[in-house]
Amino acid sequence: MSVKPTVLVVNNFHPETIEKLASLYHTYHLWEFSDPEKAELIKNLQHKCNAVASASWMFDEIVYDLSSIEIISCFGVGVDAIDFDITRDRNIKVTNTPDVLNDSVADIAMTLILTTSRNIINADKFVRNNDWLDGSFPFGYSLDGKTLGIIGLGRIGEAIAKRALTFGLDIAYHNRSAKDLPFTYFPSLLELAEASDILLCMLPGGENTQNIIGSDVFKKLGPSGTFINIGRGSSVDESALIKALQNKEIRAAGLDVYANEPRVPAALLGMNNVTLLPHIGSATIETRREMGNLQTKNLEAYFSGQSLLTEVA
């Protein structure tokens, strides 16, 4: 009878996937151990465990003390929690779960665009509070003919653009370089913000994008502009965003991500021109299941000596 390979599961990212991993491998759940116990576990797993499964957006750095790691299989697309200086130096393979979540994240993007444009959250409160008895609800804003500026037009950004076009939105974008697409390209964030009615951030996290969207961007977006973020909260200077909203430098914001999740600045919580979601871009039953399946398939490929399906370069 063959012995199951050992997999160290770093965090409690998706119970269904973690249960599936436990059925296929001999797993250890690192998050269930105290800090001293974690150190002892890592010591005991040396040269017995080569594979790690983790969320892509959070990681426990004690895992790097496990010198026998050969693969970190991540659940999620953005892998900003992984220290690639370490993985490259030690030739540790890293995989993620792209594409399978494109549609669900794009749907949330359009949800935030529609909600902020038509003031849906406040309209719901207006009815629930019986304010309708005293008068009509303020008008919202149409999408037709407006410009949606996308910061970071990757696979998900293209899925958003496809949906946005059906609402009559014009598409503009900023990337490091132009793509062969029939959308207007702007070489700088400021130029894109100035041309946009709705500015949507799809940037990944990491040092290169830290606080890259600040007061200068919001001033260019202007008092009739809306800011949407479904990328990473770390790419936005939240204090600058709050000031822009308070000073009416922009009209509204729709956020699914924050700099210090799950903590959201109190100032944002008190604003009625901001829609706040709890990082649910990919949070559908079907999408999370497919993400887990892809994560598992990468581990299966590793253990069988086959090419990894979605290795991060």
Kindly list the characteristics that best describe this protein.
single chain, 313 residues, alpha/beta, Rossmann fold, five-stranded parallel beta sheet, 35% helix, elongated
CATH topology of the largest domain: Rossmann fold
Q: Any idea what the radius of gyration is? A: 22 Å
Give a count of the beta strands, DSSP E runs of length 2 or more: 12
Reported for the largest beta sheet, the result is: 7 strands, parallel
Q: Segments where pLDDT lies below 50 for 5+ residues?
A: none
**What order do the strands of the largest sheet run in, or round the barrel if closed?**
8-7-6-9-10-11-12
CATH class of the largest domain: Alpha Beta
Overall geometric form: elongated
Q: Name the CATH superfamily classification of the largest domain.
A: NAD(P)-binding Rossmann-like Domain
Q: Round the mean pLDDT to the nearest integer and report it.
A: 97
CATH structural architecture of the largest domain: 3-Layer(aba) Sandwich
The helix content is 25-40%
Secondary-structure class: alpha/beta
Count of runs of 4 or more consecutive helical residues: 11
What percent of residues are in strands?
15-25%
Instruction: Give the terminus-to-terminus CA distance.
Output: 36 Å
The H/E string reads EHEHEEHEHHEHEEHEHEHEHEH
Count structural domains: 2
Describe the structure.
- The structure is a single chain.
- With 313 residues, the protein is α/β, with parallel strands linked by helices.
- The chain folds into two domains: 111 residues, NAD(P)-binding Rossmann-like Domain (Rossmann fold, 3-Layer(aba) Sandwich); 175 residues, Rossmann fold.
- The chain is built from eleven helices and twelve strands.
- A seven-stranded parallel sheet has the order 8-7-6-9-10-11-12, sandwiched between helices. The chain has a five-stranded parallel sheet with strand order 2-1-3-4-5, with helices on one face.
- It starts with 5 loop residues before the first strand and ends in a 10-residue tail after the last helix.
- The mean pLDDT is 97.
